[in-house]
Specification:
heterodimer, A: 291 residues, alpha+beta, Chemotaxis protein chec, 7-stranded antiparallel β-sheet, 12 helices, B: 124 residues, alpha/beta, Rossmann fold, 5 helices, 5 strands
């Protein structure tokens, strides 16, 4: 979960471009991190040591772990630990980027070190809290008025997108104080002690992609059913938000029926936010404006 | 009564939800399914065919599920209406109970929950 954060870091720092990140995110399901990348991630080996073992593998029929232990780079116990960590999402993303030739082992080592340094755990903070706080920073939510509402709402939305659509996306833009456009969108209003307008939409491909993944069906065109699928995902998100508000704070919220929009131009004020996510199937947008 | 003798009405403005609930009912061997797209449609179709069980959404255009529940119960005090909503708030739960809902389901609807409701209905 939250592979997007390390991916976003690599993108923002110019280490990879958006196309390369897309390719790696799409390939992730087929890839398992190699022991070398896992050893760099754990800080057990340097990129130079990994390269040395790789070169030795060309001359001897031995596994990476066996050579690393012989060379004294790793212990048997460390090899067992690393084998268990091979499905770690950041590692798999790094491995995909290395396999495609988009980054070197050295770039992976340096990036991961800097990324971990910048976003290190604060005392008492769980890993999930750390990732969520990092996401709040990346999206600039902490500088918004009503940042508590936006943080809770957007993080819930991202968890739902990961749960229902998948995690093969990167954050490709955060917009405030501008007009954002969406070819197709679904809109819903939250009413009660909290009033907000929320839109989920995107390009034609993005919109169809949301519907197809949410319904678990092969959809290829925009019709009433496609629109209903996107609307239902938005309704589910808002329903869960309302349930949380009711359970946690006793606040009762109501939802309006969802409305379908085409060629929507939505004004995002200074106190609102629109987040663009690039999935492998296309770009989608979440726009939230609290009144 | 056997499962295959039961007639169920699904009332939801979303064709996706109607389809998903119908798939579950089909797997459980429900004999007949009636579809309604909003509260008005549900009240009209209930009066025409008095199904054994109704799955009713709450947030819908034209007439909400709670309003439709009230009208259906005015027509038939024995009506068994399950409110199925993403908005499982205390307020909606209380409104549904007050209007005599048979059950309250939080969406996404799960097969095991539907089966429990049908078993409860058969026992009653």
């Amino acid at each position: 979960m939250y592979t997007q954060l390390f991916g976003h870091y690599l993108l923002n720092n110019g280490i990879i471009d958006a196309d390369e990140l897309h390719a790696a995110l799409t390939a992730m399901s087929r890839i398992k991190a190699k022991l070398g990348a896992a050893a760099i991630d754990a800080g057990y080996m340097t990129a130079e040591q990994v390269e040395e073992v790789h070169e030795l593998q060309h001359t001897m029929d031995k596994r990476f772990g066996d050579i690393a232990v012989e060379k004294g780079f790793l212990t048997d116990e460390q090899v067992r630990e690393l084998l268990a960590k091979q499905t770690n999402a950041n590692l798999v993303l790094g491995q995909a980027l290395i396999d495609f030739g988009f980054i070197t082992n050295k770039q992976f080592e340096d990036s991961l070190k800097d990324y971990k340094h910048r976003f290190s755990l604060i005392d008492g903070e769980t890993e999930e809290e750390r990732m969520e706080n990092e996401m709040i920073q990346i999206l600039g939510i902490d500088s918004l008025p009503d940042s508590d509402f936006y943080a809770e709402y957007i993080l819930l939305f991202i968890r739902n997108l990961i749960r229902f659509l998948g995690d093969d996306f990167s954050f490709s833009g955060v917009s405030r104080n501008v007009t954002v456009s969406m070819n197709y969108a679904s809109k819903q209003n939250i009413r009660g002690p909290i009033n907000a307008t929320v839109v989920l939409g995107g390009t034609e491909r993005g919109f169809i992609g949301i519907a197809a993944r949410y319904a678990g069906e092969d959809l290829s065109e925009i019709d009433g059913y496609t629109k209903a699928c996107v609307g239902e995902l938005l309704n589910l998100q808002n329903g869960l938000f309302a349930v949380n508000a009711s359970n946690d704070t006793g606040v009762e919220l109501e939802l309006s029926p969802q409305e379908s929009e085409e060629n929507l131009m939505m004004n995002i004020p200074e106190n609102g936010i629109a987040v663009t996510l690039s999935f492998s199937f296309g770009d989608i947008k979440i726009a939230v404006v609290k009144e | 009564m056997k499962i295959s003798d039961i007639t169920v009405m699904i009332c939801d403005d979303s064709p996706l939800i109607r389809k998903k609930i119908a798939e579950i009912l089909g797997r459980l061997g429900i004999g007949s399914i009636i579809y309604a797209e909003n509260g008005d449609d549900a009240v009209k179709k209930y009066k025409e065919s008095t199904p054994d069980l109704v799955f009713m959404d709450i947030v819908m255009p034209k007439k909400t599920g709670i309003e439709a529940l009230r009208e259906i119960r005015d027509f038939d005090r024995d009506a068994k209406v399950v409110m199925a909503s993403t908005v499982g708030t205390q307020g909606n739960l209380i409104a549904a109970i007050k209007e005599g809902a048979f059950e309250f389901l939080q969406k996404p609807v799960k097969e095991e929950d539907v089966l429990k409701i049908i078993n409860r209905m058969l026992k009653e």
